[in-house]
């Protein structure tokens, strides 16, 4: 005896299977979380096992457990340095985002200005921050401002270049349509070119978030050699000078965790800004 199945039931079955969730996450979502977590746990376990089996002293290579204990024990000191590094990082990222967006808009309005100024932005990007950070720290009396300038130099270019590319990527047919309806340059910018550039700007922001942290850490290393900084990089130098290797690793863990948190935060901002209208963030609809 045959069983009849309607076409709608056949079409809806795969979609219902795809939409099954556990605690709000699909199978793919859980895989993205659990797979890296499992690899990390295995790596930490092998690290701890190697340290214990080979009886490696903590002043050469501490195990993950010892690093965790040090992180808890010295949290009061490390959190102060973490806050200083975060202040510099986010201030540099804000300045880079604001100035990069403003210059990109200026470049989009005048090809002559873009050709005149963009090479200097490239020079800033390719100049090693390690080479110029000592000069900036010497020239600027306020150490916080000096660190901010160093972090800004590293974070500035990706936002400028990505946003400029996005503004220049607006559909030429749509631009012709705007001209046909006699739209002003301001209307073309606000209603066409800026929305087109938004995904590019947010992509540059994700890149610059990590670069701002790197710039701040490098500048703190340079300043820390002279005892003029108190961020996480200074704590790493201080621990190295005193052979407090577990404390050095604890500070490194905070730096890495901060970088991951910044990237995830920028990814969330990008998703929230684009999820309702841009294909890169919208859920697949079939």
Automatic annotation (TrEMBL):
Gene Ontology BP annotations: transmembrane transport
PANTHER family in the record: ABC TRANSPORTER PERMEASE PROTEIN (PTHR30151:SF41), ALKANE SULFONATE ABC TRANSPORTER-RELATED, MEMBRANE SUBUNIT (PTHR30151)
Domain (ABC transmembrane type-1) ranges: 82-273
Record carries keyword Iron-sulfur: no
Family statement drawn from the similarity comment of this UniProt entry: Belongs to the binding-protein-dependent transport system permease family.
GO cellular component, one term: plasma membrane
Protein name: ABC transporter ATP-binding protein
Transmembrane segments: 30-50, 80-105, 117-139, 145-167, 211-237, 249-274
